[in-house]
## 1
Amino acid sequence: MRFAIISSSLDPKSRSEKLAGECRVYLESKGHEAKLLSLKEHVLPPFDNDTVFQREAYQYLHRETSKADSLIFASPVYNWGCCGELKRYIEAVGSTPEDGSLRGAFYDKVLTFVCAAGVPHSYMAYSATAMSMMMDFKCVLNPYQLYVHNRHWDDDKMIAEKQDRLAKTMDVAIELAEALSNRTYRSDWEI
């Protein structure tokens, strides 16, 4: 299976980016292709539904997202939600240019959330983004997520309990992607 891991934090000391890297290592250890797409390296402009589609960052992210069987969104939690850069990515890569030259890249993807936060009680912060991805793009949501807050780190290493949760979350993502790889339907924008 082919996984695209979207690291959406711009923080140079990002823990969600660290989680994204650990997901990549785990998936590759299980024999899967895992491409880490950092939104720090592929900077999208504000979404304008026009010139964004000509940008190199958009074209690269759209292509890599489209090729993936499964997506992992790695995000910090800010203000009780996923970060703004992740939303910018969703707006751009999920859109279909007016000329129809490309199709939104998220349709029917298996989607897993991996979040880093400061406090223990914002573990549902990804919910609004998850619901919109399911409703808009017919993504299949992994019922397991990885939520790691400040108390789950020992220095700069994730504690064993969360390493186990990372493994289970990735194993479920793999199983869902494999189970749905032969689906007979193809979704598009529809209500």
Note: The beta strands are 2-7, 33-38, 70-78, 81-82, 110-116, 140-141, 146-148, 153-154, 157-158.
## 2
Amino acid sequence: MSEAQYNKLISTINADTIYVGFSGGADSTALLAMLLASSEEQQFLVKAVHFQHNLRGNASKNDALWCSNFCRKRGLDYTEIDLDVKGEQQSGEG
């Protein structure tokens, strides 16, 4: 996406707050950073939401900690939602 396309797209946002699903991967980190960079000019708040699925043990915990630290260092609102995916799994679900 070109900068002009991005600016056109971002100018269509009509919201006070944008919640960004934040896994800590490259895509969600880039999206979060881009929205944060545009938030003041476009007058919206950016809030990061991390869903802790608890499926990969310490790797999942480390991802959540990285996301939390990333947001804290930038003064971003961060919410972590702890899920019990395995405990809620129904018979036959993958």
Note: The first helix runs from residue 3 to 10.
## 3
Amino acid sequence: MYTWKSHFVIQADYQHWANEVMFTALDHLTPDSLASDQGLFFRSIHHTVDHMLMVSRVWLARLQGENLSVNYRVIHHPDWRGLLNALRRETRKLQAWLEAQPDAFYDGEIEFAGSDGRARPMWVRDALTHLYTHYAHHRGQISAVATRLGAPCPEMDFVYYRREMEKLLDEIRNGGDSPPAAG
């Protein structure tokens, strides 16, 4: 049965997968390119990925009923590889946390302090949708800049994720890779 919980757990897995596709494309760029001002809202690819990580932490805290204050003007993880690993861990942490929540959690509301300090109510589903579309928004910006800088264009669409997952499930069902039939 497809539930809000299963939907958002799948979306969490997709976020991890799409980040990995993006990271593979970014591996083709130099450290100077990753750190240079490319006209993004957070200027550089590095700062934008750092922002994605910090936003993930802020929203997980909000979902858990906590408040986390972050200065988005600074880069919190100056080491590029360390940043990528931190985002990997954070994405999987959120996925595991979502898997542990009861189905009823997804029909509830959270309340958090907005950037203006005022209390803001929001449905859990809307908070998660916001987080995941926020990731997609920034991955799209990064992808455009990265391809302009010479990186391969990453295919990060959800449909590609689904196709890859279906292929993996088929391989598991069929006992792994089968040798080609004798001709």
Note: The two ends are 43 Å apart (CA to CA).
